[in-house]
Amino acid sequence: MTLSNVPLVPAYVRAPLAGYLGSLGVDRTLAPYDLAGSIAHAEMLGQVGILSPQEASTLVLGLRQLAREIREGSFPWRAELEDVHTNVEVRLTEVVGPVGGKLHTARSRNDQVALDERLFLRDAIHRVGTSLLELESTLIRRAEAELDTPMPGYTHLQRAQPITVGHWLLAHFWRFDRDLDRLLATVQRANVSPLGAGAVAGSTLPIDPERVAARLGFDQPFQNSVDAVSDRDPFAEFLFDLALLSVHASGLGEEVVLFVTKEFGFLDRASALGSGSSLMPQKRNPDAAELVRGQAGRVVGDLVSLLVTLKGLPLAYDRDLQEDKPPVWDALATVTSGLSALRSLVEGLVFDRSRLAEAAGDPELLATDVAEHLVARGVPFREAHEAVSAHFLATGGRLDPAGIGEIPGVDPSLATSLDVRSALLRRSTPGGPGPSAVAKQLESARSRSAARRDSLSSLGRKVGLVEELLNEG
Predict the structure, then answer these.
(1) Is the confidence at residue 402, as pLDDT, over 50?
(2) pLDDT tens digit string along 369-394?
(3) Is pLDDT at 219 greater than 70 in this prediction?
């Protein structure tokens, strides 16, 4: 077929419902990955002899021209061509001539989009992971500065036992670090190339999927063509990772909202928290924390949306899978903006140390210390618990340090060390809130962050393969 006879709109996208079926508004985001995958595919076709070296070279040069057009904003996107893949193929044929029609040899849009999504996912996880690492670093810095600042620890939102602000901040660090660990595990499991699976049954031509996989930085090619074109586990896992990350971010946001109230008073109402009221001049609202908290529901909804789309689909590819991208795009944008806001928020937190010390100095927080003092003197814990509980009842629900000598078995000298600072020093067991234990925890956190940084650097090199393919030569 000569160039003049190439249809402006290929038959496979011509349909009465073309406007409804189109996905270009969503999947044009995949253009750089689609072009990089196409370059690797064209190179492979030339290497195995399906195309001549000249044909393969022409396709690669043409695809790189398209990449330049997209970067410069001159690429002629056409909605009637339905999706990013067809736009690329038709434009390529306009640029290089009839040989452009050979690019799709031994390839389907089914394995093509599966490949694009995995390349996109690699990039997306690198972006989220980098933002998470910045938040982790901020939490570590703030925890170091507040290593021995006392505050109450809570259960059931009631004062329970004394901890430190540094210990509280690191609790959030470890939650976010598990999120980063999950993201890195997700991208590792997803590092399998589906290209070569075709529409559902591979190809009769002598293609080399392993060569393409290696060129694009994948660990291996697919094992089963049916599974390869229908597998959306990587997107589902990514959305779960983002949903749980959002839940953790929401928890931190909720505590900031509580701690900045006058009822708690642990945080100053600094401008970093948000804006003022349009009506009440005295107000300074924790808007950023509230939005992070509120947007968690949106990301959880994105996860549910994809899972419901995938539920019950017959193998292999179904058009329902066109709906896999909007929730991922939305969750990624929501989480990345939220992480940026949360990092700034944590950086700007101003702790009211006097108010924190007052709250942490509540003698009732040391009731467990008294019980454990009895245990150390040989009293069974249940008896010790009952004795301290009886003291509370007798004093109207108060723990009076001066009167603890009245509790059977208590050494009266305990009263001299029944204060929050002494209590924190006693909590030196691994993972505890004592200053020495928190210092060790900080060392572990720094070591973990350094390892995460190395992992993200390695992932970044794989992400960079797309740009390398688009810009070589």
Answers:
(1) yes
(2) 888 888 999 989 999 899 888 888 88
(3) yes
pLDDT score of 2: 44
Q: Based on the domain organization, do 324 and 379 belong to the same domain?
A: no
The verdict on residue 84 lying in a domain is yes
Query: CA of 21: how far to CAs of 173, 314, 396, in Å?
Result: 44, 20, 71
Q: Which of 185-189, 317-321, 413-417 has the lowest mean pLDDT?
A: 413-417
**Does 245 lie in the same domain as 142?**
yes
| Same-domain check for residues 238 and 165 | yes
Neighbours of 198 (CB within 10 A): 21
Assign 159 to helix, strand or coil.
Answer: strand
Helix then strand then coil, % of the chain, to nearest 5: 70, 5, 25
- Give the total number of structural domains in the chain: 3
Report how far residue 189's alpha carbon sits from residue 146's, in angstroms, rounded to the nearest whole number: 38
* The model's pTM: 0.93
Residue 233 belongs to some domain of the structure: yes
C-alpha R_g of the chain:
30
55 is a domain residue: yes
Of 52, 275, 277, 447, which one is the catalytic site residue?
277
pLDDT for 272 equals: 61
Average pLDDT, integer, range 312-325 = 94
Q: Is residue 213 part of a domain?
A: no
Alpha-carbon span 195 to 281, nearest angstrom: 60
277 included as an active-site residue: yes
Say which of 4, 74, 156, 354 is annotated catalytic: 156
Specify the CATH number for the domain of residue 92: 1.10.275.10
* CATH code, 313: 1.20.200.10
Question: If you average pLDDT over every residue of the chain, what do you get?
Answer: 93
Pair (99, 145) in one structural domain? no
